[in-house]
Fold this protein.
Amino acid sequence: MIVPLDEELLLIRRGYPFLLVAKAQELFVLCIETYDKELCQTVEAGDLIVASAPEGGDVRQAEILVELVRTYHQPVFVMPKDHPGSARLSMVVSAGPAVIPKCDIVRGTHPEQDVICASEEFGNLRLSSVNGGVEISLPELEEIFFSISKIQTIVAR
């Protein structure tokens, strides 16, 4: 399924957990800070910026997280896999041309931007940037279980 998307945000829910998807509006370098090095990745106009809330939460918080990356080009911080702080992250963000939600990774501990920690409900989903929108790939019979809606950003840009 392809959903048109420009500057607005795409909210994908299944129960309480959700993903909030935006498209980058310009080319920029995203710095990914780990405990021992800095990785830099190009984000192109049209790439996806995705926030995941595996237990749900306030969509406005996810919007702020998305806009910190999309508008303000803030770096992403990655913790070591055994860091106790990862348990306190209620939301995480990833950016790239395609993002795959995974339920078998620890929040905030992977520098790869093509995956994002998500709840099991999103395990069969794949998000890809396409011209003018977002392609949401999931098994056909599962489409009825998701709520997909567009929302306007309220964060000052």
